């Protein structure tokens, strides 16, 4: 049955993490009979085991269902999006393919940091928003108060607010009717040439790259020769379909519809998310507006746990390389480049959107790639303005130019919004002040909570800021951040010297005021982790050529005076002097290898 374009609704489900998006998506599928009671299970659209175990959505999922309203059949294309700040790029991409958004708010928690961020993303895209207050079945639910919060903080009229419980199914039919009644249909076609926006892609071992598209103008049909307007590559469509949520093949996709395209595309490099698909023999003149490329914010090195082997030919390194390349086919938002460390062998320097993204990638590499990984401490990307005026990006502290060549060293600054209960405001302000935060504004959410806005260096929040926030507020504080630019400050590179030799893998960039404290903490851990040698081993922290801190690993000593009993003390002195000369000679020719256990001891708790 063909459904007219005016009866099509495209929308995304957006919310703060753990406010019930995935449960709501499950209930929509059941209510529209897209899945039977027997097939129904929790987090139906979350296909990864990792998503199920952590109870979070990592990748957006697009589904098509049908619903009858006022005697007419409506096609509902909806996307279940992630809620964590690290995956905001997934949300923004999904919203570009829609005309509306369903904003879910937990009736026991109220408006949270990511609720605000996602709502603003939808407002920027000029989408129609339906506020939904979820979890009515809980005894602590306060739906009326939460509806007022939505209106006060976000300025969204709550007259059309829908109260429901995704768990019990209460209010779901009203929500489906509201989507058909309140959300606008797809815009009218502006050209008769075919234009479809790529909003996601995954790699399939048997079908190659599967591209998810939203058709804005014209029509895609099986057998069409298509052109990627941004890249210029051409392919022939071998399969079209929709997820309902099972894969269902169709012969064509018309304007306003979403679906997937299979066209024998071998690598993800042939596809760019945000590109426009058009027909090769009758191409559109202008591409659809795409997306900004996701900017990697956090960087760290991954090494195989048993080392890369001589020349990088170790079996573990090959396994890691295969795992990284394979994962990049399904997650194009992280970058990787080969690196070498004297202590850890060959590995990869990887860039991520945030700390959770880094954790997810590491866990997926270990599970799906079957390789154990050693991970260095996460760092952020810095900008260096050279004395000759050139500006370069540096993601590895070891790559910093000499101090004499640096005019300015700039660090990334983020705007942090923290939703916090009133009684913890003083403690949170103290925490932000300790992390070089600059206070910007304060806004009331309700009688019991406020939103604090700070500007802070990203390097100060990527370690344990979120953990400390949760600890201080007993789990009730939430945060969201967005990159706003780079700012020059008194930043220095800390070099860790073991027996006078710099260990690149432990280099870091720190603020001058906290550099000595961080350096001493590293030295204390290293002193306990590096085994004693036959000679004394100095551990030092240097800024430029100046040593600012030192610890010493004492030498193992044989008791050479044990055989001396009685007699003149000069006999003992002679033996000790002889031993001292031997230790000195041994120190000159001996070398200290830093074991992997020592690296792990330093990296386990960051710096």
What does this 3D model show about the protein?
A hairpin with a 2-residue loop joins strand 2 (61-69) and strand 3. With 607 residues, this protein is α+β, with helices and mostly antiparallel strands. Residues 308-313 have low confidence and may be disordered. An 8-stranded antiparallel sheet has the order 11-10-16-7-8-15-12-13. A 6-stranded mixed sheet has the order 2-3-1-4-5-6, sandwiched between helices. The chain has 5 domains: 5-182, Rossmann fold (3-Layer(aba) Sandwich); 195-279, Elongation Factor Tu (Ef-tu), domain 3 (Beta Barrel), CATH 2.40.30.10; 298-377, 2-Layer Sandwich (Alpha-Beta Plaits), CATH 3.30.70.870; 383-488, Alpha-Beta Plaits (2-Layer Sandwich), CATH 3.30.70; 492-604, Elongation factor 4, C-terminal domain (Alpha-Beta Plaits), CATH 3.30.70. It is built from 14 helices and 32 strands.
Structural class: alpha+beta
What percent of residues are in strands? 25-35%
Global shape: elongated
Main pleated-sheet profile = 8 strands, antiparallel
* Number of DSSP strand runs: 32
As residue ranges, the low-confidence spans are 308-313
Helix content: 25-40%
What name does the CATH topology of the largest domain carry? Rossmann fold
**C-alpha-based Rg, rounded:** 29 Å
According to CATH, the homologous superfamily of the largest domain is P-loop containing nucleotide triphosphate hydrolases
What's the number of helices? Answer: 14
Averaged pLDDT: 80
In total, the number of domains comes to 5
Look at the structure and give the CATH class of the largest domain: Alpha Beta
């Amino acid at each position: 049955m063909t459904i007219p374009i005016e009866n099509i609704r495209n929308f995304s489900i957006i919310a703060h993490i753990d406010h019930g998006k995935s449960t709501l998506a499950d209930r929509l599928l059941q209510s529209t009979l897209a899945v039977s009671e027997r097939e129904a299970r929790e987090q139906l659209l979350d296909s990864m085991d990792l998503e199920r175990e952590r109870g979070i959505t990592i990748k957006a999922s697009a589904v098509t269902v049908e619903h009858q309203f006022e005697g007419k059949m409506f096609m509902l294309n909806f996307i279940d999006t992630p809620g964590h700040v690290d995956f905001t790029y997934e949300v923004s991409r999904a919203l570009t393919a829609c005309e509306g958004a369903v904003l879910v708010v937990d009736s026991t928690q109220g408006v949270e940091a990511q609720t605000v961020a996602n709502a603003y993303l939808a407002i920027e895209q000029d989408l129609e928003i339906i506020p939904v207050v979820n979890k009515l079945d809980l005894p602590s639910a306060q739906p009326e108060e939460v509806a007022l919060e939505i209106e006060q903080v976000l300025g969204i009229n709550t007259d059309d607010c829908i109260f429901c419980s995704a768990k019990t199914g209460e209010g779901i039919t009203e929500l489906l009717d509201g989507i058909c009644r309140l959300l606008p249909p797809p815009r009218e076609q502006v050209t008769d040439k075919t234009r479809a926006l790529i909003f996601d892609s995954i790699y399939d071992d048997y079908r190659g790259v599967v591209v998810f598209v939203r058709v804005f103008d014209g029509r895609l049909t099986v057998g069409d020769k298509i052109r990627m307007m941004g890249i210029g590559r051409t392919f022939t469509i071998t399969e079209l379909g929709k997820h309902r949520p099972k894969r269902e093949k169709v012969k064509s996709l018309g304007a306003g519809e979403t679906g997937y395209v299979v066209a024998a595309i071998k690598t993800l490099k042939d596809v760019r998310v945000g590109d426009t698909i058009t027909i090769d023999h009758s191409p559109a003149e202008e591409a659809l507006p795409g997306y900004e490329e996701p900017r990697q914010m956090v960087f760290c090195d991954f090494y195989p746990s048993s080392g890369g082997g001589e020349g990088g030919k170790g079996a573990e390194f090959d396994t890691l390389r295969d795992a990284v390349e394979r994962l990049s086919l399904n997650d194009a938002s992280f970058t990787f480049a080969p690196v070498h460390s004297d202590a850890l062998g060959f590995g990869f320097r990887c860039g991520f959107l945030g700390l959770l993204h880094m954790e997810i990638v590491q866990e997926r590499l270990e599970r799906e790639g079957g390789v154990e990984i050693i991970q260095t401490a996460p760092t952020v990307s810095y900008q260096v303005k050279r004395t000759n005026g050139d500006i370069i990006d540096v993601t590895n502290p070891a790559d910093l130019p000499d101090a004499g060549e640096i005019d300015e060293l700039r660090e990334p600054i983020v705007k942090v919004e923290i939703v916090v209960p009133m009684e913890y405001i003083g403690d949170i302000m103290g925490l932000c002040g300790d992390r070089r935060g600059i206070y910007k504004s304060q806004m009331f959410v309700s009688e019991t909570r406020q939103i604090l806005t700070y500007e802070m260096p990203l390097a100060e929040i990527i370690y344990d800021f979120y953990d400390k926030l949760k600890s201080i507020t007993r789990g009730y504080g939430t945060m969201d951040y967005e990159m706003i630019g780079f700012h020059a400050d008194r930043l220095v590179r800390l070099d860790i010297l073991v027996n006078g030799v710099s260990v690149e893998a432990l280099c870091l960039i720190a603020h001058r005021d906290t550099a000595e404290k961080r350096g001493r903490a590293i030295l204390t851990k290293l002193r306990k982790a590096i085994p004693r040698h036959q000679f004394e081993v100095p551990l030092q922290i240097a800024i430029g050529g100046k040593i600012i801190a030192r610890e010493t690993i004492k030498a193992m000593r044989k008791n050479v005076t044990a055989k001396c009993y009685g007699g003149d003390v000069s006999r003992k002195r002679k033996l000790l002097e002889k031993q001292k000369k031997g230790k000195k000679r041994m120190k000159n020719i001996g070398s200290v290898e830093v074991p992997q256990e020592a690296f792990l001891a330093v990296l386990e708790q960051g710096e």
